[in-house]
């Protein structure tokens, strides 16, 4: 019997061990017992979400997106996430983003038109003055070069840090492990050039309202996704991001089953 129980426990833990996603143990309360929470990548309307129009957005909102390209698929595969890009909404139908050609500002409508999925999150409690500082800094960075070295260095870091996120590792130990790896593997990355999520986090830092105490060079779009309310972040946020809604969602194609021979 004991061997069967051990086998069952191993079978239950195997998916977590393979994915090495962040976990959190919640102690018993009056309404629930001991609970293990696991990082979730599920993000779709109909699963607690909703489709919204651009008029619902507020300046400073963070848009996470994915598109049907090889680069996007590679990022999503490497980060075990449905998102591959992060964008900062400036207000008045304009966004700023860091892409391969550098930092640029452009209409939100172009992003919604091009991407397969666009989902918005909000940092609660932003003041008008914070938004103005963010917008001013973001516009001043238009034309700044893309942090290609940072992206290349980030790829092995994302994979290696999965060891720090093995199930049941205490969050303090996991954070120390990730910090140590980042210092070694990302030390040569530029902080005066930007990739997408680094740019968004730097905009918040420049406005005096950092989203996380971690270096922006450590953070991927997938990390921002897991900073949402109700999820388990790999990199701690100063406060959880609030889900606003999906501006666009195209579900992944479903492969049809083979018909009778």
Automatic annotation (TrEMBL):
Residues 1-22 form the signal peptide. Keywords: Signal. The keyword Cell membrane does not apply. This is YaeF family permuted papain-like enzyme. It comes from Acidovorax cavernicola.
